[in-house]
Amino acid sequence: MPAIDKIVGIFFFFTLLLIDMKKIALISDTHSWLDTDVLEHLQHVDEIWHGGDVGSLDVLDKLEAIKPVRAIYGNIDDRSIRDRLPLNNIFECEGVKVLMTHIGGYPGRYTKRVKALLESERPYLYICGHSHICKVMKDKRLDILHMNPGACGIAGFHQFRTMLLFECEDGAVNNLQLVEFGLKGDAPGLQKDPIKLD
Questions:
Q1: CA 41, CA 89: separation in Å to the nearest integer?
Q2: CATH number of 21-186
Q3: b (16+ CB within 10 A) / e for 128-158
Q4: In what order do the strands lie in the sheet with 21-27?
Q5: What is the pLDDT at residue 198?
Q6: What separation in angstroms does the CA of 149 have from each of 30, 132, 189?
Q7: Phi/psi at 64 (nearest 5 deg)?
Q8: Among residues 17, 35, 48, 56, which one has the fewest Cβ atoms lying within 10 Å of its Cβ?
Q9: pLDDT value of position 187
């Protein structure tokens, strides 16, 4: 019996090695704010994707110290962030072609620039930020999944802070979860100093 257990264990180990899947945390519009609520979720993913308006190099450096980061700059980001991040980020993750840009609209209401990009690049997943409104919807005409994670920072007109978690596996997005942090006025540390980014 122990030999069978050993064979099953070895088979299970090698099966795990063959599975190509990445857990993703999608955030946006931090506007120089990271707190313990957000940081806790970032510990349990393989990559962090940021949809722009990072706000400060301290935030970007902190994210990069936690996990690999894929990001773009947003309209409030200064030259120091724009020197490190692109306007558009087009890449593939576990067979999922992704196009990220900060300002681009959503299905039926794309900006002219982004509509042309989507039609030429044909990603599976199109990500933007800027609106501070969490939105996930399918563009049936272009056959593209659109995600905007909302804002996890405290600056802006949004009421609730949000982010998205999902998995990229075998050319598809699976196990999508909305994480809602509550009212932005209730963010940890808001009454005191925000997290010190050493």
A1: 23
A2: 3.60.21.10
A3: bbbbbebebeeeeebebbbbbbbbbbbbbeb
A4: 69-71, 47-50, 21-27, 160-169, 172-183
A5: 43
A6: 11, 8, 22
A7: -65, -25
A8: 17
A9: 76
Output the furthest CA–CA distance in the chain (Å, rounded): 65
Contact 156, 176 (CB under 8 A): no
What pLDDT, on the 0 to 100 scale, is given for residue 196? Answer: 44
Instruction: Kindly give the pairing relationship between strand 21-27 and strand 160-169.
Output: antiparallel
The domain segmentation of the chain, as residue ranges, is 21-186
Instruction: Please tell me the predicted confidence (pLDDT) of residue 81.
Output: 98
- The pTM of the full predicted model, rounded to 2 decimals, is 0.86
User: In angstroms, rounded to a whole number, what is the distance separating the alpha carbons of residues 27 and 15?
Assistant: 31
Label the pairing between strands 160-169 and 172-183. antiparallel
- Residues 114 and 110: their CA atoms lie apart, in Å, by 6
For residues 47-82, one letter each, b for 16 or more C-beta atoms within 10 angstroms of the residue's C-beta and e for the rest, the string is bbbbbbbbbbbebbebbeeebebbbbbbebbeeebe
Note the pLDDT of residue 46: 98
Residues 118, 110: Cα–Cα separation, whole Å: 9
Distances (CA, A) of 36 to 25, 40, 180, 198: 15, 6, 14, 14
Chunk the chain into consecutive blocks of 10 residues (it has 198) and report each block's average pLDDT, rounded to whole numbers: 57 55 98 94 97 98 98 98 98 98 97 98 98 97 98 93 98 97 77 45
pLDDT of residue 186: 81
